[in-house]
Amino acid sequence: MKYIINNSILALVGGLAILMFVMFAIAQQPELTYVIGNDEKEQSLINVSMNNKSVDPPENRVKIAFVATSANHILFIERVKEDTNISKSINITTHLVSTEDPASYQNINMSDQNVIMLVHLGYPIQDAIKKTVQTAKDNGAYVITYQFKDVHNLSNVNLSDPEYSNITKYWDYSGEENMNLLITFIGVKFCNVSAEILPPVPTPLYGIYHPDAPNVFEKTIDYLNWYNNSGKYNASNCTIGIHYYTIPTRENAPVLDALINLLESKGANVIFATYTYKDPNSSDYFIYANKSIVDAVITLTSFRLHYRDEERGIEYLRELNVTPLKGISSYYYSEEVWNNSTGLSPSEIAWQIALPELDGLTEFIFVGGKTKDNVSNLEYYEPVKYQMDWITNRVISYAKLRRMNNSEKKVAIIYYNHGGGKNNLGASYLDISPSLKNLLDAMKEKGYEVGNKSIPNRTELIDLMIHQGRNIGTWAPEELEKMVNNYSVMFIPEREYMEWFKELPKNKREEVIDKWGEPPGKIMIYENESGKYIVIPGIKFGNVFLTPQPTRGWLQNNSVLYHDKELAPHHQYIAFYFWLKKKFGADAIIHFGTHGTQEWLPGKETALSVKECWPAILIQDLPVIYPYIMDNVGEGTQAKRRGNAVLVDHLTPPIVASGLYGNLSILHGKIHAYHNTEGPLKAEYRETIIELYNNLSLDEDLGVSVDELRAMNDTNFENFVTNELHEYIHELADAFMPYGLHILGTPPDDWKLISMVKSMLGDKFNNDVAEIYPNYSLLSSAHENCTVLEDLLSAVLCNRSTPVDAQMMVLGKVSANVTEDLNTAVAYADNITKC
To answer: Is 81's pLDDT higher than 80?
Structure first.
């Protein structure tokens, strides 16, 4: 016992001595100060002050750089830098970059880094950092690339290797803890840092989500059971699908949750599901019992729908067979910046609009902007309420349209009478009256209510349009009165329009009044003893209303105003679109043919505001179908992006060889005569050729004056005429041009089909035949209306001969290349006849 007591006392005394020593040591310890994010070098330093001396961290720390566009990921990594367990052995550098801010990625120096991780970088950024990254690689650095196409082959780490597969998981799961684990993983795997590698901390990434559900669902049936039991499901209502890459995070949940809740508040059923090439079940969520269970889709993904297999994304949408709308949460703009902009930035247009268009997405409505939480400094997407209201109304309209019986649908078909008057009814390269007749016949066949009377023929229809379906200028009030008194047109009382007009924002009302005066204005106004009325001309066929789009401005100066994107629409224009929705009750409108004016009204270039942009204000929640000529891509994009239209391409008129006519035809004949004649007559042909050359002003095209031509000796003259001049005339004869007007639903046939297919085959067909045909020059359309090229096509397209039989009949021999051309011709013709 004594031994024990004495030892205890010794232990106590020893402990006190040690405690006193520790307290003294602590008093003498340096003060530790962590300085994060030096602006110039962007590296973390630990300044240790003691006895007025500064001690730098070890020089041999591992250097790891991150270059990324995600502010939240960079913020998490910056926080990890403060962890002394990390900073004692790893020197972390971060670069938050943006294609909108070139200064963020220019002049970055990473040549001395041991590891560089690059995430989600656009081409300008890749180009700017290529040199410094390559230098680092040459010095032995590891380069990890993720979430972008590595066009410069900067990466030397294979993320598909199971050894490194956790790198993408750390990043995708995100959060400060996973960034800590990612940096530790990189340090251990590539830099011999001594630490324990731990697996990623998972969060659900893929599946079906609802903000009120207790969990994420992997199978559609499980979600449907929960949704039904929750009391939210209503079988009589439409169902809207929503796509995003992953289950909502704190960054994007405000927009996605708001979208779900708003749709449900309007009576729609909602299924939110992920769609990404990383989720093998992506294509199954909206399909149940081998059938699409959604009536329309809003996707907030960007780029192509299926990143690694674009055709799979298109095929998936084809399988759903519903209208896919594109909601835009801007990566760069807050709501305030967007409000003050002309639309999205060029780079964001590329991946938010242009690439999704290739999959068939439409609408492109701005629904959320980026903002920053003042407490956490984390960025998140904030919903724009009135834009959310607009996209939900529009998607529900498309969904209802899909569920309605055709006999119930009310459709307005709007054709173009741009300058007003009787002679300005039409569309670009589209024969409007027979095309409308075909459309009405097809609608009747599909069950649309088009009235009890027979549909007028093309002549009767154009007569009706001239008398009661045209715009009338302010200079001809008697014509308007004649229309009102003799035909059935629609009226909007002044008082009713005034109520609609008051629904517009104050600044928009002021724009209209400033240009067009107080409502109801002067255009298409009829007045009698009961008051003033805005006249809406048109022809009703049951539930279908054929009507001209209102003129763009004062008819006296219409050509100046047509594409004026600063001129507010006039009162009758506004009343027209409001009447279609509020009084006619249109379920959809068809802007018939290329092209109208609604998509050219004032407003942003892209990502329109329903409060500020006239195309959006007037179209409201009306679905728009737009038959548009297939070769006018540039203006067609405006109809999609600014007019909220679903485009349905139609054929051009037949494309035919122009051939020769008039003096060109005579000149061509004289050249052949000159070539085949000798003696005095040859001199006469020479003089005639010079005279025709002068009359046709061919000196301007060929650069040889008439005087120079006259001065040539016989040898030079013959060389010039039989070569340069003759070949040029052949070029003119072989040039293609549109022939007439296309009739919707009536593909070309006979010689028109042959000419169209010939134009599509191009020079290859001509050259392939020339290789086995003895007289190449006779292949030109300058010689006759039907050459051997047309004979070959006629044989396979009209007579249904095989390519081999056609060649033997026309050419007397067979070429593998010509056989291939003729098989291609048959495929082209089959596709054309289906249009």
So the answer is: yes
